[in-house]
């Protein structure tokens, strides 16, 4: 609420009073009436001034309160912005860490897949080698079995030959011994 400052009433009152005095010279009742109206006018001015001062004070306090509230609001907004920036920074850092972790996990997974593939390849190679060795062993066993059979048959024939030769030799030895014994006996009889 705005108030307009009014000029003091007593200035106009004095001029009016002077004019009244000129026109009412010798009239004491008119002079007293003008004096009373001047006092009443001054009281109205003082009352209006008090109202105006109170209004100005209230308006100033209101503006100060508005400024204080605005500053508080700016401070709160600034704090909220700082908190949001900190939260955003945390989220950004967390997201970066999560991406790094995810990338690391993908690398590990890829490496594990490579290692698994390498192990599988080595297993296949070893199985193939074992298969080849097994086939070679079977082939060699078959060959050696045939060779052993030939050797066995050869040994049997050789043993049979040796037995025959030994039997003949024993028989010859027996015959020779018997012959020698017979000769010795005959010789003894002749000498006797």
UniProtKB/TrEMBL annotation:
Residues in coiled coil: 67-101
Region described as Disordered: spans on this chain: 1-45
Compositional bias annotation for Polar residues: 25-40
Keywords: Coiled coil
Protein name stated in the entry: Uncharacterized protein
